[in-house]
Amino acid sequence: MFGDMMNMMGKLKETQAKVEATKKRLDTVLVDESSSDNKLKVTLTANRTIKSIEIDNELLEDKEQLEDYLILTLNKAITKATQINESELAAVAKEGMPNIPGMDIYK
């Protein structure tokens, strides 16, 4: 019994280390998103950190339009980055979950 508990704790620590390594790796995974007319382009990491924004000069003439473009394009990029982030972290967590009766929600 005690050995099983120690084994489970070791596996949980190993999983935690894998989750942290995955988070670091996700800093290198880039998500690109553009407006439908390519006048605005953004790049985020899968950890949802903005890396770059490219704005067409035409958008600089209309503040409201630029704000709308930024909101729409950034939200699309954040959604993509979040999906990548959550699926990667869920895969690591699922792999490291011990077999506990009644806790099969991760399968």
Automatic annotation (TrEMBL):
UniProt-listed Gene3D superfamilies: Nucleoid-associated protein YbaB-like domain
Pfam families, sorted: YbaB_DNA_bd (PF02575)
GO molecular function, a single term: DNA binding
Major location (coarse): cytoplasm
Keywords assigned by UniProt, alphabetized: Cytoplasm, DNA-binding
Subcellular location field: Cytoplasm, Nucleoid
UniProt cross-references to InterPro entries, sorted A to Z: YbaB-like_sf, YbaB/EbfC
GO CC terms in record: bacterial nucleoid; cytosol
Highest taxon of source: Bacteria
Family, similarity comment: Belongs to the YbaB/EbfC family.
Role, per record: Binds to DNA and alters its conformation. May be involved in regulation of gene expression, nucleoid organization and DNA protection.
Subunit structure of this chain's protein: Homodimer.
PANTHER family in the record: NUCLEOID-ASSOCIATED PROTEIN YBAB
Descriptive protein name: Nucleoid-associated protein SAMN04487987_103348
